[in-house]
Design goal:
This protein is 16% helix and 37% strand. It is an alpha+beta fold and 165 residues long. This is Flavin reductase family protein.
C-alpha cells in the first residue's frame, strides 16, 4: 500500500452505505469507502465490498443493491453500518428503513439514494466489485445541493471496522 499512500493520503472521497437483500430475505448493509461512478452512457456505478464483510456475502446473492449518501449529521447511522457486523447484529432493527424497489432496504436517514441492478461482479483481491446500473433513485431528505455536505472518509477514519478480523 505504500506505493499508493502519496496519492490516497491527499484524498477525502465520499463514503456510502450499501444495502442488499438476498432472495431468501436476508438483509445486510455496510459503510463503503471504495465506490464511484464508472460510466456516463450507459449510467454505471461501481461499489467494492470487503470479502470479510457480511454485506459482501449477501450482495453476492442479490440482484440489486442500494447505495445511500449520508450527510455529516447522520454520523451515528454511518457508525452503525461501519462498526457493527451483520454476522452478529441486526442493523436494521436499530435504524429506520423501508423496502425499496426490488425489495432492497432503503435507509430513512439517507440524503439521496439509488438502487442498482448488479450487472457484473469483479474480483478485486480482498474486495469484490459490483458494477451497478441504476434502476431507481431519489432524495430521501435534503438534496446534496441544498443540504449539508455528504459524509466523507475523513469523517469516519476513527471508526473500527465491524467485520471480523
Amino acid at each position: 500500500m505504500a506505493h499508493l499512500d502519496a496519492v490516497t493520503d491527499l484524498l477525502d472521497p465520499p463514503v456510502f452505505v450499501v444495502t442488499a437483500r438476498a432472495g431468501d430475505g436476508t438483509r445486510a448493509g455496510c459503510l463503503v469507502g471504495f465506490a464511484s461512478q464508472c460510466s456516463i452512457d450507459p449510467e454505471g456505478f461501481m461499489v467494492w465490498l470487503s470479502r470479510r464483510n457480511h454485506t459482501c456475502e449477501v450482495a453476492c446473492r442479490s440482484a440489486h443493491l442500494a447505495v445511500h449518501v449520508l450527510s455529516r449529521a447522520r454520523l451515528e447511522t454511518a457508525r452503525l453500518f461501519g462498526e457493527e457486523t451483520g454476522h452478529s447484529v441486526d442493523k436494521f432493527a436499530r435504524t429506520r428503513w423501508a423496502d425499496g424497489p426490488h425489495g432492497t432496504p432503503l435507509l430513512a436517514d439517507a440524503d439521496a439514494w439509488f438502487v442498482g441492478r448488479v450487472e457484473e461482479r469483479t474480483d478485486g483481491g480482498d474486495h469484490v466489485g459490483f458494477r451497478l446500473t441504476p434502476v431507481a433513485g431519489g432524495p430521501a431528505g435534503p438534496t446534496a445541493q441544498d443540504g449539508p455536505r455528504p459524509l466523507r472518509l475523513g469523517d469516519v477514519l476513527h471508526f473500527s471496522p465491524g467485520h471480523p478480523a
